[in-house]
Amino acid sequence: MKENIDENDTKVEFNGGGKEIESQEEAARLKSEFISLMSHELRTPLNSVIGFTELLLAKGSDRSPKDEEYLDIVLSSARHLKSLIDKVVDISKLELGQSEMASEEVEVCALIKASLNELSHLAEKNSIKLVFNNMGQEIWCLGDETRIKQVIVNFVSNAIKYNRPSGRVDVDVFEDEQILITVSDTGLGIPEGKQNLIFEPFKRLSSQSSHIEGTGLGLTISKMFVEAMGGQIGVESDLGRGSKFWFNLCRVESPQQSSTTSLLEANETKNKAVSAINSLVLYIEDNAVNRLVMTEFFDEISGVELLLADNAHDGIAMAKKNKPALILMDINLPGISGLKALQIIRGLDEIKDIPIVAVSAQAMKHDVDEALKLGMDDYLTKPVEFVKIQSTVAKFVFNNRTDYHL
Ligand code: ADP
Fold this sequence. Notes:
The protein is built from twelve helices and 14 strands. The chain is α/β, with parallel strands linked by helices. The strands form four sheets. A five-stranded mixed β-sheet has the order 4-6-7-9-8. The protein is globular, with a radius of gyration of 23 Å. The relative contact order is 0.11. Adenosine-5'-diphosphate is lined by residues 154, 158-159, 162, 185, 187, 190, 198, 204-205, 208-209, 214-220, 243.
């Protein structure tokens, strides 16, 4: 995967066809296409492995404890593989300079709150207290909201994973000419000689790598993201007492409310949940295994009925007839693609307001951005996990009603 394009050599052989590619740009484009295709091809079978293993585990039966343990190992290995694919794709894109980096005004306190919410389960599982010390403040910086959140999530999840039992994680934001975000933990700390190394790919501290799950790529990607946004990243650590990971970004004044809508707010307004009385969900997917996995998922969600279509043409007809509360749609469909179907549906008065969530193995940022820009309400990447489907249904079908438990 770490195949470097020699900067001094403009002729690059690619794809085994013996074809000489004259420009680095063309080589980079082909490499990017290859990565996109490869990650798609890997994700599709992974989807089945994760989906069916989750189902087997959820169903429970009179399996022996050993068999249960084997299934847990299959599931965590498949998830690990998925996380590796995601990260290798990210790194390759960054190395190729093809990772589009937005430069927008971002309110970091809301972003930190959202990240801590997402990680509250992991913290609870590890008996770690999460503390955010700038609650209620608004602090703005310049950067790419999605990437800043990825860095915060990486720092905080590490601070939870590599902490001691009943430890604590503090997140602080400081404002000066720049904004500085720090994540401090009460873990074992990192020896001084290793503090730079852990930002390199696949470098993990040996004391932790055997028993704590990780890929050794999170900090590499965080560093690339922060530096691409013009910031700096680093760590200070006190062996035996804890570590403080930090990054800084350019500070901006709070923009006029009317001129800027953050991604988070935009996503909120996109929530077009319809009446809770309608609990029909339509899934448009050509792959039979994926349909089966989804059917099994919906069997576990009470009060919701799943309709299936194996192509967009039939899917649109079913949407017109049944007016589902939510459409889940594969993108890579034969005939009418998922994105084309989205545009068709958005043009049909009677069904144009139905929320549509993409369910796709295409996980590149530009794929996701394009789909959201065209009007998808959300984008789930395969392999989709049961909890993601549950939260999507809770959000779009039940409008996050607190009195409804899936
Ligand atoms: P991962 O956590 O997936 O292994 P990272 O790139 O995020 O990958 O981290 C690389 C390594 O740095 C980790 O494996 C761990 O050894 C070390 N590390 C990261 N964060 C901390 C922390 N807060 N405390 C102690 N060690 C850490």
